[in-house]
Amino acid sequence: MIPDTPAALAAVIDHTLLKPEATAADIERLCAQAVRFGFKAVCVNPWHLPLAVNSLRGCAPLPITVVGFPLGASQTLIKAREAGLAVEQGAAEVDMVLNIGALKGAELALVRQDVAEVVRACGPVPVKVILETCLLTDAEKEQACCLAVDAGAAFVKTSTGFAVGGATEADVLLLRRVVGPGIGVKASGGIRTLADALRLLSAGADRLGASAGVQMLEQWTTGGGA
Fold first, then answer.
1. Of 90, 114, 185, 216, which residue has the fewest beta carbons closer than 10 angstroms?
2. 1, part of any domain
3. Could you say which of 95, 114, 171, 196 is catalytic?
4. C-alpha 25: how far from its chain's center?
5. What is the distance between the alpha carbons of residues 36 and 214, in angstroms, rounded to a whole number?
6. Contact by Cβ (8 Å): 113, 153
7. Residue of 40, 79, 128, 157 with catalytic role
8. How far is Cα 67 from Cα 218, in angstroms, rounded to an integer?
């Protein structure tokens, strides 16, 4: 569904700060913005998760974090333990990076197990699987979607924002076609304008991961809305 108000747009944005130089003050500011503007969630690196959980306590935005980020090349045991710790510390959702090299090497059982172990470690907490679509062929994207869904993922997600490309309309359309209506699709990476956001939502994204959410809402209120 395409949002028809700034509040509806904010409600599908994961307000994100994953830069390695982010400070505690930056995370506190991020959380305050999420509360003020009504964003769906705040997405931070694991080190900052306890601060985000504490800052958002009693507020609507969800604290979420990443696992195996940004390369996806951590060992499965480490990913699962990182995910389990995140849940213990209060993560409401976990965004994990797929083992990209294993997928490209056709080690499909390994890819599925990698996701399944993280899903198991998270229990009832939803897991989003980051595919890093800019590094994959369309056939690999389809394989990744099927493996993630079969392993119990709640969402598939386009990108980390740390590779050579981010979310595209074509990739969101492909992901939505493959996973169908029952699995979430999160677009992330390079979403900087209101036009970007609306285009990706129109293509089938349910959620957006973005650091520019405040600017998007400001664009809407200054005449850039649909």
1. 90
2. no
3. 95
4. 22
5. 10
6. no
7. 157
8. 31
| Residue of 62, 25, 72, 68 lying closest to 46 (CA atoms) | 68
Does residue 22 sit within a domain?
Answer: yes
Place of tokens 């409600």: 11
- Find out whether 14 and 208 touch, Cβ atoms under 8 Å: yes
Write the DSSP assignment of 106-155 as a string of letters.
Answer: T-HHHHHHHHHHHHHHHTTS-EEEE--GGGS-HHHHHHHHHHHHHTT-SE
Q: Over pLDDT 90: what percentage of the chain?
A: 96
158: in domain: yes
81/122 Cα distance (integer angstroms) = 9
Neighbouring CB atoms inside 10 A of 194's CB total: 21
- Enter the DSSP assignment of 206: S
Residue type, 2: I
Active site residue 186: yes
Tell me the per-residue pLDDT of 102-120, one tens digit each, with 9 for 90 and over: 999 999 999 999 999 999 9
Rounded to an integer, the average pLDDT of 34-48 is: 98
Q: What average pLDDT does range 204-219 have in this prediction?
A: 97
What type of residue is 138?
D
Retrieve residue 62's tokens: 């969800």
210 residue type, one letter: A
CATH number at 196 reads 3.20.20.70
Token pair 């490309």 is at which residue? 165
How many domains does the chain divide into? 1
pLDDT at res. 226: 52
Q: 79, 128, 186, 196: which is the annotated catalytic residue? A: 186
Asked which of 5-14, 76-85, 167-176, 214-223 is least confident by mean pLDDT, the reply is 214-223
Interhelix angle 108-122/138-150, rounded to 10 degrees, is 40
For the record, the structure tokens of 10 come out as: 């904010």
